[in-house]
Write a structure and sequence with these properties.
mainly alpha
């Protein structure tokens, strides 16, 4: 059976959906750590994604540094 352009496109749709299902949480994690969401594109490259996890685990996180530099004010509790 010959492959038509429609068959190629139909098989490409699940790949796009699975990529989005994987990349959206990675982008959210990167945003919460204070890094650019564009780093999630490295998660698509085999071996580079594993190295990226190790680098992310040991590099300084800008979001944590920001909280440590400016800790939130503690409001005293008032009992009524």
């Amino acid at each position: 059976m010959a492959q038509t352009p429609a068959n190629g496109f139909i098989t490409f749709i699940p790949l796009i959906i699975l990529s989005l299902v994987f990349l959206i949480p990675v982008a959210q994690i990167l945003r919460r750590t204070g890094h650019s969401r564009w780093w999630c594109l490295l998660a698509l490259i085999p071996l580079v994604n594993g190295i990226g996890v190790w680098v992310l685990a040991f590099v300084r996180w800008p979001a944590v540094d920001k909280v440590q530099a400016d800790p939130p004010a503690v409001v005293p509790r008032v009992d009524s």
